[in-house]
Design brief:
single chain; two-stranded antiparallel sheet; alpha/beta
């Protein structure tokens, strides 16, 4: 099981994120992630660094770890633009990019305000989920150089040609907390991500894998990843927490850390991880 670190960006500064990323790579973590948000719902005046810009910069200061957003709100970027951004990041990172996609927060979440304040509509759950499925299709078409037209409910392509291709195409990991997103992940994604302590983790994993089987794609290329807070129980190889994830065939554990990031804490976590 791979173990990654997610740098929570609310109130973070670039210099802090850079130092934490270098410490995480040196400590033996397998990957680095950050969130895709425009503002801190708690009102931190320091703001939130933009996700893909930050990841591109982190690609330049690291050499080994994978990099990705957990997860991008598809409503914030047209998938045509996102395809080009992701292909660029794949070049910068030397093939280390993983694209996490999600439906964004519902109107009931504090994150809805970051869209509403900019005049962007926060649509109902089903519509936002449909956008994720269509966006994944658009991304794959553009990355492969497919110049045929595409007419979806939310997105259209008119004989696209000449767009930057991703080599290799980044894996698409779709994040969610319920069966609808798990099924979309299995049908259109290369992985599904949810909470490590989700009470229906086994059911969601089964739904994703059943949808994958129905799609006819290679199950060996599909991954199940989960996230949790950084704590010793998730780092020790002999812990019951990790054993539970192994029983559910989790491939990747992503641990969250808040700013200001403590490099000594990251190094100590790495020693537990590799000890």
């Amino acid at each position: 099981m791979k173990t990654d670190l997610l740098l929570i960006p609310m109130g973070a500064r670039w210099a802090e994120m850079r130092s934490a990323a270098v410490a995480a790579e040196e400590a033996g973590f397998d990957g680095l992630w950050t969130w895709d948000h425009l503002r801190d719902p708690d009102g931190d005046p320091a703001g939130v660094p933009e996700c893909l810009t930050t990841l591109a910069a982190l690609a330049e200061v690291t050499t080994r770890v994978t990099l990705g957003p957990l997860v991008l709100n598809v409503s914030s970027r047209h998938p045509g633009l996102l395809a080009n951004m992701a292909a660029t990041l794949q070049q910068i990172s030397g093939g280390r990019f993983i694209l996490g996609l999600g439906a964004g927060g519902s109107k009931q979440t504090p994150y809805a305000r970051e869209q509403e304040a900019l005049g962007l509509t926060v649509e109902r759950d089903g519509v936002r989920a449909e956008r994720v499925a269509e966006a994944a299709q658009v991304l794959r078409r553009l990355w492969s150089g497919d110049a045929s037209s595409f007419a979806g409910t939310h997105y259209r392509l008119d004989r696209p040609a000449g767009y930057l291709r991703a080599d290799p195409p980044p894996p698409i990991v779709i994040g969610g907390f319920g069966p609808r997103m798990a099924a979309i992940a299995g049908t259109h994604g290369d992985g599904f991500n949810t909470q490590a302590r989700h009470p229906q983790l086994a059911d969601l994993a089964r739904i994703a894998r059943d949808a994958l089987a129905a799609s006819g794609r290679d199950p060996a290329r599909f991954s199940l990843s989960v996230f949790a807070g950084l704590a010793p129980a998730w780092l020790r190889s002999d812990s019951e927490s990790r054993a539970t994830l192994t029983r559910h065939q989790v491939d990747r554990l992503i641990l969250l850390i808040q700013p200001p990031y403590d490099a000594s804490q990251i190094r100590a976590a790495g020693r537990l991880l590799t000890g």
